[in-house]
Structures are given as C-alpha cells and as structure tokens.
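Quick start: what a row looks like.
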Amino acid sequence: MIMKKLTFSLNILLMCLFVGVTINGLGQTTIWSENFSAYVDGTGIDGTGNIGDYPEGVTKWTLDVSNATLSDADDYIKTRYEKMYSKDVDGYVIWQSESIDISAYSGATFSLYASESGSMETSDYFDVYYKIDNGDFILIPNWDGLGSVNHTLIDDFTSTTITKSVPSGYSLVIKVLMANNTSSEYHRFDDVMVFGDMVYASSTTIQNTDKIAPDRTIENIIAIEIETTGSASPVSISNFTVNANGSTTPVSNNIENAKIFYTGTDNTFATDTQFGSTYPSPTTTNFDITGTQQLSQGTNYFWLVFDTKAGATIGDVVDAECISFVIDGTTETPTITDPAGSRTIAAPLAGDYTIGAKSNYTSFTDAVNELMALGISAPVTFTVGNGTYTEQILLSEIAGASATDTVIFQSNSGS
C-alpha cells in the first residue's frame, strides 16, 4: 500500500502544537582505564628516587626498578605529557596494574597504545603480560610481527595499539616491561583500557495495544527487549521462536507476512534493518525466524510485525508471543513471553471527531495516536473544545491521507 504525503490544516486559537524528537546516544563503557592524566607530570621513579605523586598519590599501579640501573634524574620511568615514559634504564623497568575485577563478565579484552623513539636495537624491548586470578603471568609474543617469540615488541617498532582478549576469571593484572639503554631511547605507553566481554543479561517483551486497521503493512505487535552488559566481543542473535497466539482465529483471515526488525538501542520502531526473512503465514503455533544480528551494549530492540489483510474483520484482535531466542548458540527465554493486551482491528478514521473533556478524545495525544494507528479513509476534522493544551505530539505520514482526504484540526468556533 502506498502512503501518500499528508495535506494538513491546523488553525487553533491560543494553542501551540509541539513536535518532539528524541535521539538516544550510546557510549562505550570500560571497566578499568588509565590515561595518566590524573598525576603531576614526572610521577614515578628516577635515579634520585621516588618523584611526583609516586607512590603516595598512586593507587591503580606500581613500579619496579629493581632490575634497572637508574644513575641520575635523566634515567627514569615516570609520567610525561600524560603518558608513562621510560628512558635509559640499563636493564628493564616494570609497570604493573592493580588487580582489576572482571568477575561479572564471561571474559575481558584489554588494550594499550605503545610507542618509542630513538635508535632502538633488537636488545631493546617492550613486553606486555597479563595474569588471570592467581595464575602465572602470560606474555603476548611478537605483536603484529613487530616483536619476537620472547618479546611483544622489539627494536624500532614506532607505535602500535596492543589488544588482547583474555578468558573469564575473577581478576586481571596487566604488566608492562620496558628495556632500553641509552639517553636517546624512549619507550612510552598510554590509554590502558579493560572492557568486559559482552554477556546476555535479561530480556522481556512489550505489547503494542494501539488499534490496527485492515490492509496495513508492517504493523508492530510486540517489542522484544534484550539487555546485554559489556562491550568487547559482542554476542549475536541467530533465531527467534515466535507465534501469533492470542489473535482471533483463524489467524489467516486477518494477518500475513511476519517479520522482525532491529533498531539497535533505539526504542523507536523503524524498518531500516530486517532480521532474517519474512515468514509468510504466521500461526498460533510456534514458528522460527532465523538470521544474524550482532548486539550492542545495553538494551537492544527487536520488533515482531505482521501485515493486516484488506478483508481483516473489524473487532478481531491481533497478538503475538516470543517464546525464545538463540544468542551465541544458547537458547534464552524472555522473562515475559506473552505480554498483556493485543491490537484490535478497527476501521480507519473518517468524518468528524471532537477533542476535549467530554469528547471522542480527551487529549491531542489520544487523537493523534489513533490517527497514526488507523489512518483515514475519507476527510477527517477534529474540533477542539475550549481549554489549555500543552502536549507534545509527533506527526508523520498518515495512511490514506491525500490532497482530497485531508486532516483538519479546528477550534469549536470553526476557525
């Protein structure tokens, strides 16, 4: 069915109509990070001893220079320009994070940005280790071909971001070793971040109870909300088991073409991303819609929709259930599979209606909701009673509206 653009007239005394649009944003959340911006420049250890905020003002990491020879103030491991630097250490120095809690996640991913300057040799290295719980430290060898079997990075590697996924556990510790031996050689690193791997947290379904008109395409019946925590190693949905249970039977008289759409973390229904294929003949018994959709951190929204047939029976109802879904190979069941309510099939609007305390609709919101749900089959006029209206409403294309079939809002004086 073709949706034509609305010809809309609005002339209401002493009333303002507001259109509101909400845009939701999503930010990535880390479970631990260090960018060295919280310390006095020069916090660390040099040939004269502890300097800057170290160790009294540092709680997130420790330094070890027992395997280095720091002869003077120009030999050091310390913060500079909001990075951790090492220079001319004649041996190696160690930076080690505190114990980081990763117990709430199925695994974790950490990353850090490493760089160097000066004329490095193969004996100069930058090593990254990690430890899970009380296990041994594990070296990340030969990162991106810039190291060796015994070292993460060696020689003149310039710069790189090291990323490592680690298994589940209670705690993670990250350790960095830096070895250089002349006054012109610098190692440095920054932006140490730990992300919890994404895990499924919970799910439920939400019922749409707006009326529904015959001969409509892509009418959402229920929303399926899937909550995840963590952002690294995202999980994916591969299957939904759903049905049209609760609908007036025989279902085939009223509906067809079941589809599922995905809107990410946006809780506003849209049809940009279809999950899987169309199931042409939905029934009250279970059927599967199979596809692949990677999830985002937070609440993810899927929408089960049907088309209504041109001959759908006025007064019948349309309903649906989500029995289960498969996420990374595991079948999960929403807390609520059959939300209360349904959508009643009703005729499109046509003719005259009133808005006010004792009218067809008590508010603009009620009138517009039904207008958007049902569309129109003839010209429609809403006459607004006296009163103060401060609602915010959103109008988009209205099914059935045209240059001749218009929608008019007017005051009860007729203007």
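That is the whole record. The chain has one helix and 30 strands. Residues 127 and 152 are 5 Å apart (CA to CA).
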